[in-house]
Amino acid sequence: HMADTYKQKSVAEQHSLDVSWSVLMREDFSTLRKSMFLDQKDLQRFRQVIVNVVLATDIFDKELNDLRKQRWQKAFETKEGAKDQNLRATIVMEHIIQASDVAHTMQHWMIYRKWNERLFLEMYAAYKAGRMEKNPLEFWYQGELNFFDFYIIPLAKKLKDCGVFGVSSDEYLNYATKNRQEWEHRGRELVAEMLEQAKSKYPTKDTETKETEVTDDGT
User: Is the pLDDT score of 207 beyond 50?
Assistant: First the structure.
């Protein structure tokens, strides 16, 4: 199993890295590599950065998250970090990739709704197919609030602090905050609507009768 190959750590991310790197290393891309890298040191540096930024999208690995927080603090909260431009550049790229991964949460409400709904439907289909243990209905409402509070809004604040997006950083933070407020107000209603759409799209003979209400804990 793929999970065993990667020892249950960042499976999707590591697999993506392996596949993309193997393609880049093919003989028919030798000219491209010569254009990208002056020497082996350049190539190794590039791989290090790519690994860091792709693994940065694994937000469920506590150990990796803790390491990223430590690197952020070193890069932007210490005198030593202020002098290390390579460290700062890597950290900024990690956060740009993280923001790209969840960009819908920092855009207009309708864009957030569109991609939130698609993810719910995808995970509901996985649950019905036996590829996911928990019904997303059980955690979706509160899970989104937690996602905003503990990941999205702190990430938007860091993007603002590092200044990489200039005045646009204020816009991302404002959208994230407003989407969080709107979800808190309308989220239960929207989860119920998404559930009805999911039932219609993925009908089953044994659809649970309990899939009708959304309470504070998402059930």
Answer: no
Which of 143, 10, 103 lies closest to 64, judged by CA? 10
pLDDT above 70 for 195:
yes
* Cα separation values, 143 from 41, 105, 146, 164, 219, Å: 43, 13, 5, 29, 11
How far is the C-alpha of 190 from the C-alpha of 211, rounded, in Å?
14
Specify whether the CB–CB gap between 132 and 123 falls below 8 A: yes
Convert the pLDDT of each residue in 109-160 to its tens digit: 999 999 999 999 999 999 999 999 999 999 999 999 999 999 999 999 999 8
The span from the CA of 28 to the CA of 44, in Å, is 20
CA pair distance 111, 116, nearest whole angstrom:
8
Could you tell me which of 49, 42, 154, 52 has the C-alpha nearest to residue 99? 154
Cβ pair 198, 120 in contact under 8 A = yes
